[in-house]
Amino acid sequence: xxxxxxxxxxxTKVKFHKDYLEISSIYENRVIAKRFxxxxxxxxxxVVKPSELINLAxxxxxxxxxxxxxxxxxxxxxxxxV
Length: 82
Known about the structure:
The chain has one helix spanning 50-57; strands spanning 3-7, 13-16, 20-24, 29-33, 37-43, 61-65, 71-75. The chain has 1 helix and 7 strands. It is mostly beta strands. The radius of gyration is 12 Å and the shape is globular. A hairpin with a 5-residue loop joins strand 6 (61-65) and strand 7 (71-75).
């Protein structure tokens, strides 16, 4: 079952791996396989590499939110067919 992942805390660290995400905050540590993510909501202040974000956006829709959870923008890329 796919789930919606919300990372609202700005001090959370998100590590992108090939098949999964590692989310670490002062409250919890989670590992989530990318294939089980339906939508990914991320605080705009979290530092991530653009290439990692683009790779995730090819698989799921990524939303940028503020500390209150208001959606500021979204990103969704379609896989290119060669």
